[in-house]
Write a structure and sequence with these properties.
Chain lengths: 228, 295
């Protein structure tokens, strides 16, 4: 699904955020990108989403080199990837329903499709009955559920989440991670950047560890610990 | 899909317009002012043009005589000129008569100039065969003895051309300056709208919205502002021009000015102004969204 070959990213200010990373993520995988703050996790997710371009190396999505994509293909790429943010990024003046519907609206889906899909997705993330609430009337966990609903409503092939539990307490974090696991079980590839080691250890998923921009470990059913 | 997007676009544009209402009004007013000047300038230009064409096509030369001129001798000389088609002697009483006619209802204004008090000289009215012969003929005639003054329409045209050249420069300069100012105001208006929706725009990009989907409402907003300004300008100009035409028709003193009332000409001027307003709004908003949307 996603392949990176010797990818490096040096920001304009000279900071080498990602150095010579090669990585394959297969369809349907559940992958944690872990590492301390500043390790390059966010940068890596931005590279996959083509929000940033690498300084060197190649990135493939479904066998196609995304660095060669024109604007239309970049849009297509982004429509196949659902993103979830640490700070949720919901629109405060829209209701839960409208926030999720927005994801379909902006890519031009029909009203009929929106009317069918949105309630189903909200039910799936456990938010039935909250359709008309505004984000500030929800708990952090609920807000992130809206964020997840918004990411999956367009049925993306990949979910890309950058510290999705960074603003949540441990119990709520666990619930959100369980939600990702359910989504992954239906065949969606899930990539989560996090430094929440307790959760990572508990879930026994593939773990790709970064340190100072380098890939230091890549383990199936891995755990989060430092050192060789 | 297209319909949904159009609906979204319109709704967002309306929301933005109400949010930045006064800035929108200011931008529209600025556009209106620049278009009014441009329009007024165009109206003057087409009228001057028509006036010049009428004057230029007249082949008549007025030859005013000294008091002691030898009319018979002059008549012979005039008849001997090449390119003269017709010569008519206009004694001063008749000249006054004709002037009174031109004054129409207000001929009483001339009542003090009867008989002895008539300030007009006797004159000849010479018709040339063709309009382009007029300047040469006029010059030749001016050297004849007993000729006080020679007058013909093209003289006025030359003076008018000189004046309009300056008017053109000043008016066009003003239009360009004001137009640039108006576009700048639109850019500012749209930028404010975009700043107000910055978060939303950021999220839309992550959700895979196309640039045009994001830009659409802002471009529409700019075009609405531009069109509103243009409508105000056309309404003002239309009313003003109509009033002027009506007044001119009542004012016999200006009998020689026939304002342009050709509906095709006027419609194309007003239509052009509307299009230009739309264009200014569109261009202004495009400048705004282009800078803002670089990913
Ligand atoms: N936009 C940017 N411009 C310059 N440097 C950046 C930018 N984003 C991140 N960095 C730097 O790149 C390194 C990796 O950052 P990041 O990818 O955010 O790591 P992580 O998400 O693992 O904390 C850090 O040193 C950070 O300061
Ligand atoms: Mg980060």
């Amino acid at each position: 699904m996603i392949q990176l070959y010797n990818v490096s990213k040096v920001y304009d200010n000279g900071v080498p955020a990602v150095s010579d990373i090669s990585l394959r993520i297969a369809k349907g995988e559940f992958v944690f990108l872990i590492g301390p703050s500043g390790a390059g996790k966010s940068t890596l997710t931005k590279l996959i989403f083509r929000e940033q371009l690498p300084s060197s190396g190649q990135i493939f999505f479904r066998g196609r080199n995304i660095l060669r994509f024109g604007p239309r293909e970049v849009l297509q790429l982004r429509r196949q990837i659902g993103v979830v943010f640490q700070d949720f990024r919901l629109l405060p003046r829209k209701t839960v329903y409208e926030n999720v519907a927005f994801a379909l609206e902006v890519i031009g889906r029909s009203r009929k499709e929106i009317r069918e899909r949105v309630p189903a997705v909200l039910a799936r993330v456990g938010l039935s009955g909250k359709e008309d609430a505004f984000p500030d009337q929800l708990s952090g966990g609920e807000q992130q559920r809206v964020g997840v609903a918004r990411a999956i409503v367009k049925r993306p092939l990949v979910i890309l989440a950058d510290e999705p539990t960074g603003n949540l307490d441990p119990d709520t974090s666990r619930e959100i991670m369980d939600l990702f696991e359910v989504i992954n079980r239906d065949g969606t590839t899930v990539v989560i950047a996090t430094h929440a080691w307790d959760i990572v250890n508990r879930m026994r998923k593939r773990v790709v560890a970064l340190e100072n921009g380098r890939l230091v470990r890549d383990e199936e059913r891995g755990s989060y610990s430092y050192g060789a | 899909m297209a319909l949904n997007s159009l609906w979204y676009c319109t709704r967002q544009a309306c929301i933005s317009l109400t949010r930045n209402f006064w800035l929108g009004v200011a931008s529209a007013a600025m556009i209106a002012v620049s278009l009014i000047i441009l329009g007024a300038f165009l109206l003057v230009a087409v009228n001057a043009n028509q006036f010049m064409r009428i004057v230029e096509s007249t082949v008549e030369i007025n030859v005013f005589l000294e008091d002691d001129a030898d009319v018979r001798d002059l008549q012979h000389r005039l008849a001997g000129l090449r390119g003269v088609e017709e010569i008519r002697f206009v004694p001063k009483q008749q000249g006054l008569q004709e002037l009174k006619k031109a004054f129409g209802e207000r001929h009483d204004l001339l009542s003090g100039f009867e008989g002895e008090n008539n300030p007009l000289p006797d004159s000849f009215r010479v018709r040339a065969e063709r309009a382009e012969l007029v300047p040469t003929l006029a010059q030749q005639i001016s050297f004849f003895p007993g000729v006080y003054k020679v007058r013909y329409g093209q003289e006025y045209v030359e003076a008018l051309v000189k004046v309009t050249r300056w008017v053109n420069v000043v008016a066009l300069g003003a239009v360009v300056l004001l137009g640039a100012g108006a576009v700048f105001l639109i850019v500012t208006t749209i930028r404010l709208s975009m700043v107000a929706r910055q978060d939303e725009i950021g999220i839309m990009k992550y959700l895979g919205a196309s640039n045009w989907y994001i830009r659409g409402p802002f471009v529409l907003e700019g075009m609405v502002v531009g069109l509103a300004g243009a409508c105000a300008a056309v309404a003002t100009l239309g009313a003003g021009y109509y009033y002027l035409v009506v007044v001119l028709e009542r004012l016999p003193l200006l009998f020689f000015i026939q304002p342009v009332t050709d509906p095709n000409m006027l419609l194309s001027i007003f239509g052009g102004l509307l299009g230009l307003g739309l264009l200014m709004g569109g261009v202004g908003s495009l400048i705004s969204v282009r800078k803002f949307l670089q990913v």
